[in-house]
Amino acid sequence: MELEKVVIIRDKTRLEQLVERFNSKAQAKFYLERSGEDFGFYEQEHNTFYTALKQVEQCLSPLFKHKVLFRSFLPTYLFAEGDMIVVLGQDGLVANTAKYVNGLPIVAINPDMERYDGVLLPHVPETFLSAIKSCVEGNHDSKQVTMAKAVMNDGQSLLAFNDFYIGAASHISSRYVLEFGGTREHQSSSGILVSTGAGSTGWISSVFNMTNNITQYFYQQKKEFDCGLDWDDDKLLFVVREPFLSKMSQIDLGYGVIAKRKTLKIESKMPTKGVIFSDGIESDFLNFNSGSIVEIGVAKEKANLIM
User: Fold this and answer.
1) What is the distance between the alpha carbons of residues 110 and 118, in angstroms, rounded to a whole number?
2) 58, 94, 118, 278: which one has the fewest Cβ atoms less than 10 Å from its Cβ?
C-alpha cells in the first residue's frame, strides 16, 4: 500500500479521567485514598501507557507522518485511503475503531501486557513497526473480521465489530415485534443481543454462561453451549434476553443464526427510550422508538487486522 500517514488511536487513561472528574490530580488522589483506593495503581497504569505511546511515536517519527487521535473523535474524523491505523489500548478500543475506518489496515498494540488480555492486540511497542513495514511492502498476514450492520427505515445505519444491543435504554421492558425466518412475534424482554464471531467471547457469552449454569442445575451434569463462530464466519447470532410470556408477548423466537443475505427485522413498540448501540458504546446510538424499524445482517464491510 502507499502509506500517507499513520493515525494512532488512543483513549484517555483512567488517571486522566479521574483528573477531569475531580479537577486536579491532588483532589483525585485525596478522594480515592480517603476511600481506601490505591492511587498508585492508577499512576502506574498511566505511566506505563505513556511509556508505550512515547516508544510508538519515536519508532514512527523517522519513517512516517503520524498523528494521535482520541477515541471520542472516531465518529466524526474523516480517514483517508492512504492511512494506516495503529490502535494503542485495550481490546475494546480495536472494536470501537474498526467500524469507523472503512476497512483500512489496523495494527493493534498492547501497551500493558500485565493488565490487558490482548485478544485483539497481537503487537507490542517493541516490534509493531515490522508489521507496518510488511503491510507497506504488501507482504503481511491479515485477518478479515466479519461485522454486523443495522439499517433503519429512515436510512440511518450503524456497524458493530462485536455486538448490537437493541432495546430500552433504561431498566424497563423492551417492547417490539421480532421477525425472523418467516416467524413474527410481539415480545417483551430485556432487549436483544446480536453478536459477531469476534463478539462471541464478549457480552453474548454471559448469556451462554447463564444457560449452562441453569442446565447444569436441572440435569446434574455440565453442558457447555457456546456460540461456535469464528471471526471470519459470515454469520451472526441473536438472542432475546429474559423474554416475558404474557397475553401480549410471546417467547418462542428467542435465538437464531443470521446467515449472509438474511436479516433480523425488529419493529419498535417503545414510545420513548428505545435505542440501538454497538460494542458497548451507549453514547453512540440510534433512536429506536415507535415507528422505527431496523434490519440487522452481515455487513459488506470487514475489519482488517494486520497480524
Assistant:
1) 6
2) 58
Are 73 and 163 contained in the same domain? no
- DSSP β-bridge partners for residue 277: 165, 285
Q: Give the integer Cα–Cα distance in Å for 38 and 191.
A: 37
Q: What is the arithmetic mean of pLDDT over 234-258?
A: 95
The C-alpha cell at 82 is 492512504
pLDDT tens-digit profile of 64-95? 999 999 999 998 999 999 999 999 999 999 99
Number of domains in the chain: 2
181: left (phi over 0), alpha (psi -120 to 50) or beta: left
> What value does the mean pLDDT take over residues 44-73?
97
Residue at a domain's end among 117, 140, 163: 140
122 and 39 in a common domain: yes
Query: Given a cut of 90, is residue 225 above it in pLDDT?
Result: no
